[in-house]
# Entry
Amino acid sequence: MDWINAIVQGTLLGGLYALFAAGLSLIFGVMRLVNIAHGDLIVLAAYLGLSVSTVLGIHPLVALALVVPIMAALGYGLQRGILNRTLGDDLLPPLLVTFGLSVILQNGLLEIYSADPQKLQAGAIETASLQLGSLALGYLPLLMFACSVAIIAGLQWMFYRTALGRAFRATSDRQDVAQLMGLNRAHVFGLAMALALAVTAVAGVFLGIRTSFDPSIGGGRLIFGFEAVIIGGLGNIWGTLAGGVVLGISQSIGAEINPGWQVLAGHVVFLAIIALRPRGLFPRMD
Amino acid sequence: MTHAVTRSSRTSRIAAVVGVVLLLGLSAAPWWAGRADMRLMGEIFLYLSLATLWNLLAGYAGLVSVGQQAYVGLGGYALFGLTILVGVPAIWAIPLAGIIGALVAVPVAVLIFRLRGAYFAIGTWVIAEVFRLTAAQVSALGGGSGTSLPADVVRAMAEGRDAREALAYWLALGVAVLVIGLAFAILRSRLGLALTALRDNELAARSLGIDIWRTKFIVYIATAGLTAMIGALIFIQKLRISPDAGFSVNDWTAFVIFIVVIGGIGTLEGPILGTLVFFALRETLADLGTIYLIALGVVAIVVMLRAPSGLWGLIRARAGAELFPISHRVRGETQQGDR
# Structure
């Protein structure tokens, strides 16, 4: 029974990891940018959620109404102001610039909020659970998982059914031709980053409700998101959800064996997958 | 008109003489420098070595790793494990740590070379995390809270504190000379030619028959072994190790990357200049704490965007100087003979 419980809880946790990964996957898909600061942006969103909910005295989930647009605007500005200048054939500039950004964000948060762990208070929903036989499913993990599925479905729909998605796909395929067709590449990339950080905002607030956080944990969140993307297969957004779930289950099974092995088990499964299936479980592009 | 192909130039010959004099002066530091200065210089040499190695990886072989702390920590832990658990003298544990680092790097390289570009970068970070979490499980070396080097191991290194400090200093200086010398020798060799071609254009290099995978593999293994050796030296100075200190991404990778980027990536001179700038900034601004780190991040971003070839790149563009004679230059000569 413990094992079934571990698998179910791991699956729900995987929803959160898929949210960490969705933004990463989106910007990689559109502009081949790997954002090393992604984890720190998740943590930034959690702190924004903290500030908004304490200053205005509102529930953290309601605070999302402000955090999401703030993060999206930040994403657009970041992309157009800095990151667009780094894009090109050489992969060093985007990598190093986002690495610098990561150090700036980490230390900036440390300066403003100190190193003390913080947590978002979500009230009764944090402990309430649905009893299914001997399984207890927390409402909060269920809500996170449902949100994650909804966001990924939304991204999928946006990508293949809307004009914006067509612009993303066109720019992703051939930047110069898309530019000739009247798409402003800089603007399209800005929108992609805005959307990615909007998703990141949701991920950050959920992270803050689920566990305590401090400015140093960004790197770890980046790695979880990255592992979910690679396990699922590059360019496949539903695959990313599956990757998140695989990672979540591996971690909760690892924790079941030995509490010290939780994160390690996730990494080991990730390394096993790149050894056996280097393109991930459900690859769609190189 | 005839012409000659040379590598050395007046600048490089002067640099060589200055370098030798500087080296002699630095070797004598235990007789003229105070203990604190010697510790600082030792730290500078170790960072210089780390930066030179990272530059070889990222600047030449195109292997942008953000996980070199894996080998720093591994080397440190190898030192502590060998001395505490096996009873190897600390001096012998240092080269052994290097060998262990290189051996561990072989399966790691086979695995993470499957990841491309930026994904390779984060993959190296995952490896470092695996090492860190594994080290935290080794209860014989203190688990998550780490351990100290026992007093008898330290005392066995040399008689008296002054002699130990001098030994640690010479080892740091020695490894810096070894690493820079090795990087210089590699870059002048056939492998170096392959690496330079790789740096400039991977596709063109491959079409000229360079085995990309093998070249990258050799560089990765060599840097891993040397990085582990430096890790052992770092923790001989610190006398204490913990998983968080040994496998710190900020200390052993972020700072190193900033040094190389600010100094000038893809040149041997860049990391040297970068290390000097980094320590000058640190010694003057370190009291500012986090602000200092934010400033460092801003400087690195501005350099990457405005002057991607770094400070040395700016100097070279103006003066055409090259301290290490690596590139070939063609010089036309008039009939009257050489000048």
User: Anything to note?
Assistant: Chain B has a mean pLDDT of 87.
